[in-house]
Amino acid sequence: MKTFTNRVPYKEFLSIVPHPVIIESLTNKYPVVIEKVEGIAKSRHTLGKIIPKLQHVQMKEYGYHTGLLKNENLVHTHVNPLVDQVTAPSKHEEEKYPETYRKHAWPQVEGYQEAVRDIFGVIQQCAHVMAGHLDGHVIKTLKPDASKYQSLVQMTKESQMTTARSFYYRERRASEDGNKPSFNFHYDRMNMSACIKDFFYLNGQEIEQPDGAGLIFNTKNKERYQLRLKEDEVGFHIGMTYHILSAGIIPAHAHAVYLPNTEGLSRASQAFFFSPSPHIEITPPVQFDNIASSLPEDEGVVPKHIGLTNWQPGMKYTDWNEAIVRGFKKVFFNE
Ligand SMILES: [Fe+2]
């Protein structure tokens, strides 16, 4: 399968804002890859020794598990701790927004929280810089009334809801159709998502990323690409929240997870999702009526309408978040 080639060296990432390669990639629905990010390879190596242990952790031993995937013959562990901490302003709010204020606990795996937080420290810095690239491009393109544009830099710095999600997928049964995704095409709901190089194992031994395995993106020109990162790289892609806040200038990226039908194969990944704080209004700075049609129906997203038809200008992130999570659970999980 084709792989992405657009890469931005870390030093350029820090100095050229907005970087033309970042904008070209993200507007065409490719993730963008920052290369030679300092501090990532070592922290990733530490996490790599710990992350396989997640598959043995009982669901009840940690705070939040979205459950087993519907109609899928594979084991899917999904650890979803908040690296930020958001506290409900009242008991009423806590009950009204169970997904937003859900209590999270880290699984009891020695060194896991420290390893994830180490990586998060580096990725959070990258996310602040990435937000500056996006703000620069959107402001230049839309020329919005300054009082109406919500700065992504500010939103990223003030966010209290960033999640660090570890996924663990184990192999399908031999009878399964190897071409079926492990997690079907979807848009992330957040502003942006970041990931590091996945871990693949064959019968417990770490192996290189197999062809066609891992995150697959559907680009604007309807080509499918595999994301293939190196140990010292960070990939970023865009979610529905920033799609709306940028009035579609920076579109959400349709993506899926594939795991080839190979006995003994498993995949672990570590992703970070940058969300606005709960009270932020998800309203673009200019008139933007065509939200559903700006995310094409032929991108393979199942179902096409998740989150999109629920959005109204002036909606708070909490309200939208609750509606989307309920939608996702109905479609993807046995809940
Ligand atoms: Fe995703």
TrEMBL record:
Task: Give the source species.
Answer: Halteria grandinella
Q: Which SUPFAM superfamilies match?
A: Clavaminate synthase-like
Question: Which protein, by its recorded name, is this?
Answer: Uncharacterized protein
Q: Which domain of life is it from?
A: Eukaryota
